[in-house]
Amino acid sequence: MTDAEFDPSGEQAVSSELAGVMPVEYVAFHSQNHVAYLKYAHLELGPSAAQTVVEDVFTFLLEVWPDALKEENLQAFAWAQLREHVERHRTAQVMPTALVDTVRYGGSLPASTSPA
Length: 116
Fold this sequence. Notes:
- Helix content is 64%, strand content 0%.
- It is an all-alpha fold.
- α2 (24-45) packs antiparallel against α3 (47-63), α2 (24-45) runs parallel beside α5 (74-92) and α3 crosses α5.
């Protein structure tokens, strides 16, 4: 999938099987924020990692949902989690951030760093 083909609306809803066992507030939060989170992750990490990172964030939020609801600002808490997950993923990557930024903004990798 290329940047031009990116469609964040593809998997924005919680599956109907899971929606019945998840807190209704969480399902609503997920539905309202999934596209924005996916767009952000896509811009920061590219299409291959975006979906995985966003799923990880929503899984984490579900695990801490009762405590997350006690936060003064749930939206700010959740965005902070997304930014932390994105940064952790970026840090774990082999390719330095400068090269990722070059590719993200239309550049190309030098021949010596391109995958074979």
